[in-house]
TrEMBL record:
Family to which this protein belongs: Belongs to the EMP24/GP25L family.
Keywords annotated in UniProt: Endoplasmic reticulum, Membrane, Signal, Transmembrane, Transmembrane helix
Domain of life: Eukaryota
Cellular compartment(s): Endoplasmic reticulum membrane; Membrane
Keyword Transmembrane carried by entry: yes
Protein name: Transmembrane p24 trafficking protein 6
Lineage: Eukaryota, Metazoa, Chordata, Craniata, Vertebrata
Pfam families linked: EMP24_GP25L (PF01105)
GO cellular component term of the entry, any: endoplasmic reticulum membrane
InterPro entries the UniProt entry points to: Emp24-like, GOLD_dom
PROSITE patterns cross-referenced by the UniProt entry: GOLD (PS50866)
Species: Amphilophus citrinellus (Midas cichlid)
Length: 236
């Protein structure tokens, strides 16, 4: 993801290594943002061609009169082409990167013009196989020949199994993060409903007491006796 250094975007944090070495490996981010009414916020994340890019998002709570939970999300390739577009309160976007560079993710609150919303984000890249970028093509060919000749090599089997387990653990944490999003949304919804019920109960209680008091005053005013002559009967 792009970092800011003294107000200037800094895309290469280690100039002594190549971008392939710098960004290679499973990389993910989980955080929440608050979008103002009709607000727009964008993020950029690096991915190489052929790698898996994923984005999960979910609207946690909404304020304002309309309480519209709809969120417009777009993902653009480094060349500016639209990769994916979603208009919903939650979604999971996964695709294979067709270009190498920074992919843009924009979140727009255009449907809710009179209230803010909090969004939980989880995005990153992952790799089904691992490759050492420092090796040349000749080394890669030699490695393939050695692997084909030594299928029963214990170390190779352990290494492949380790990378497979790492990949499965990574996906497990991805789905765990999405379940955390759903849990937080349910929590904020319960809080909102509790406040709504409490305030309406108080308002209705005050209305009932006030209406009863006014009815009592009205009935009392119907039975007013006059203070005239003695022979004059009470007036109802």
């Amino acid at each position: 993801m792009v970092r800011l250094s003294h107000g200037v975007p800094q895309t290469n944090t280690r100039p002594d290594v190549t971008d392939q070495e710098l960004f290679w490996g499973s990389d993910q981010y989980d955080f929440a943002i608050v979008l103002p009414a009709a607000g727009l916020e964008c993020f950029w994340h690096f991915a190489h061609r052929g790698e898996k890019f994923y984005l999960n998002f979910m609207v946690q709570w909404v304020t304002g009169m309309g309480h519209g939970r709809q969120l417009s999300v777009t993902v653009n390739a480094p060349s500016g082409l639209l990769v994916s577009a979603v208009d919903d309160a939650k979604a999971q976007i996964t695709f294979e990167a067709a270009e190498t560079g920074f992919y843009q993710m924009c979140f727009s609150n255009l449907h809710n013009r009179f209230g803010t919303m909090q969004i939980f984000l989880s995005f990153g890249v992952y790799y089904d196989t691992y490759q050492d970028p420092s090796k040349s093509e000749e080394d890669e060919e030699k490695k393939k020949e050695e692997v084909s000749r030594e299928l029963n090599n214990t170390l190779s089997i352990i290494e492949a199994a380790t990378h497979k387990v790492e990949n499965h653990v990574f996906h497990m944490f991805r789905y765990y993060g999405f379940s955390r999003m759903r849990k937080s949304v349910d929590y904020f919804l319960l809080q909102s409903n509790s406040k709504y019920i409490t305030w309406w109960s108080m308002a209705l209680s005050v209305l009932i007491v006030t209406s009863g008091y006014l009815q009592l005053l009205f009935l009392k005013s119907l039975f007013v006796s006059s203070t005239g002559a003695e022979g004059e009967k009470p007036r109802c």
